[in-house]
Design a protein that fits this description.
The chain is α+β, with helices and mostly antiparallel strands. Helix content is 33%, strand content 24%. It binds zinc ion.
C-alpha cells in the first residue's frame, strides 16, 4: 500500500477529522460519565464501515478493521474521559481559533479534552476509516479502542480489553500527547494512605491529649527530606514522592485531633515497586516511633470503589506501573519509520512527564509506544488547545503505522 495514497486520503478528509474531534469535545465525558462519547464513537465506527464494533461491560468501545489473514495486529488506544473543566472558559465550545496566543503556529481547537485526548482518539478512529476506504484489506487487524476511567487511575480500561474482551494485539499504541515525538517510557504512580492516631481533648488542656496532626507533621517533614534520596532510572529519571492532601479529625479549631490522614503520591520507576514504596514509608514510621513512643501510625495502599458509566462496580488500588520500551524494539523502529514517512524528518524519542496506561500492555508482553498530537503542557490546563495541522499529521502517522504493522 503506498504511503502517498494514505497520506493523500487523510489530507482529503482534513475537515471530517476536525469536525469529528470537535464533536467529541462538545460532548462532555468526565471520568465515570463517558457514555455519550462512547455512543458517538461507536456510531461513527459503524458508519465508517468498521468490521466489528462493540461496547464492553465496563464501557470501553472497541472497533476492529479485520485483516484478511494472520498478519500482525495493532491496537490503538485513547481514553474517552477528561479531567473536570476547572477554571476553563467555555470548555465544551470546541471553537477554532488562532494558536498565536498559546504559542502554537496555525489554527487550534480549544476545549477540555482537546489535547488529553480527544484529538488522538478522533485521529485513530479516522485513520481506521481511511484504511477502510482505501479498500486494500490488510493482513492483520487494526483495533481502535476508547477506554474509560483513565484520569482517576481506575486501572480498568485497557486491562478489560485484554481480560474481558480477549483482545491479543501484537503491538499497542497509546495516543497521549507527545507533540509528534515518539514516547517510549514514563514513571508510574502509587498512592498510599498514611494515618496517625492520637487522643482527643479540649485544646485548653492540650497536654492531656495526643495531637495526631503534630505527629503527622513529623512524618510529612521526613517524607519531604527523603524525596531527594529516592532511587533513579537512567532514562526515566528519579522517583519522587509528595504529600498534597491532608485531613484532621475532628477538623475543629478548639479540639485536639485524634486522627490525621494524608495521601502520598509516589512517582516510581521499575526498580522501586509498590511493595518497596510501602516498606520505605513503613520504615519512616518505625524510625519515628522509636524516637517517640506516642507516635502511632499506619500506611496502606489507598483503595477506592469506582462505578463506570455502564454501572460496573469494582474496587481498585490507584497504582499505575512505570512503562519502558527499549529504543531497539521493533515497534519503536517501525514507529520512527512511519513518522519519517509522514514528517520527512527523524522522530524525536521522548519520555512522558505524566503517567499513562501503557504498562497495562507491556505487562502482558505486548510491545507498546506512545504517539499523539498536542503538547504535554496543555493537558489538564485552563488553556487546552490542539493544533489542527498536528491533528491531521497524527492521523497520517496512525494510518501509515497501521498499514506497516498490519501488512508485515
Ligand atoms: Zn490522558
Amino acid at each position: 500500500m503506498s504511503i502517498k495514497r494514505i497520506v493523500d486520503v487523510v489530507e482529503r478528509k482534513r475537515d471530517e477529522i476536525v469536525d469529528f474531534v470537535r464533536e467529541l469535545i462538545k460532548t462532555p465525558s468526565p471520568t465515570g460519565s463517558e457514555g455519550a462519547v462512547a455512543d458517538l464513537l461507536k456510531e461513527r465506527m459503524e458508519a465508517e464501515g468498521y468490521s466489528q464494533v462493540m461496547v464492553d461491560p465496563v464501557g470501553n468501545v472497541v472497533g476492529v478493521i479485520k485483516g484478511k489473514s494472520d498478519g500482525r495486529s495493532l491496537l490503538c488506544n485513547g481514553h474517552m474521559d477528561h479531567v473536570p473543566p476547572g477554571g476553563m472558559k467555555s470548555p465544551y465550545s470546541a471553537k477554532i481559533i488562532d494558536g498565536v496566543d498559546f504559542g502554537v503556529e496555525g489554527k487550534v481547537i480549544y476545549g477540555r479534552g482537546a489535547t488529553d485526548m480527544k484529538g488522538a482518539l478522533g485521529a485513530m478512529m479516522m485513520a481506521g476509516s481511511v484504511l477502510k476506504s482505501l479498500d486494500l484489506p490488510m493482513k492483520g487487524d487494526l483495533i481502535v479502542t476508547g477506554t474509560v476511567f483513565e484520569e482517576e487511575l481506575g486501572n480498568i480500561g485497557p486491562p478489560s480489553l485484554m481480560e474481558m474482551d480477549n483482545l491479543k494485539p501484537d503491538a499497542a499504541l497509546v495516543g497521549e500527547s507527545t507533540n509528534l515525538a515518539l514516547a517510549h517510557g514514563n514513571r508510574g504512580v502509587v498512592r498510599t494512605k498514611l494515618v496517625t492516631y492520637g487522643r482527643s481533648c479540649h485544646v485548653s488542656v492540650q497536654e492531656q491529649g495526643v495531637n495526631a496532626l503534630y505527629k503527622m507533621a513529623r512524618i510529612i517533614k521526613r517524607i519531604q527530606e527523603t524525596n531527594r534520596t529516592l532511587p533513579s532510572h537512567p532514562i526515566l529519571g528519579q522517583a519522587s514522592w509528595a504529600i498534597c492532601k491532608i485531613t484532621a479529625t475532628p477538623n475543629t479549631v478548639n479540639v485536639v485531633p485524634d486522627r490525621c490522614e494524608v495521601e502520598i503520591d509516589t512517582r516510581n520507576i521499575p526498580d522501586f515497586t509498590p511493595e518497596m514504596i510501602i516498606n520505605e514509608q513503613q520504615k519512616i514510621i518505625d524510625e519515628l516511633t522509636n524516637e517517640d513512643s506516642k507516635l502511632k501510625a499506619e500506611v496502606s495502599f489507598a483503595k477506592k470503589q469506582i462505578v463506570t458509566w455502564t454501572g460496573y462496580k469494582t474496587t481498585v488500588a490507584p497504582i499505575a506501573l512505570p512503562f519502558y520500551t527499549e529504543p531497539s524494539n521493533w515497534l519503536v523502529e517501525t514507529g520512527r519509520e512511519s513518522i519519517r514517512d509522514v514528517l520527512n524528518r527523524e522522530a524525536a524519542l521522548k519520555i512522558w512527564g505524566f503517567t499513562t496506561e501503557c504498562y497495562c500492555f507491556t505487562q502482558r508482553g505486548i510491545p507498546t509506544i506512545g504517539f499523539g498530537p498536542g503538547e504535554e503542557r496543555f493537558a489538564h490546563s485552563n488553556n487546552e488547545v490542539l493544533s489542527i495541522n498536528d491533528l491531521v499529521t497524527a492521523t497520517k502517522v496512525y494510518a501509515v503505522l497501521a498499514s506497516r504493522i498490519c501488512n508485515s
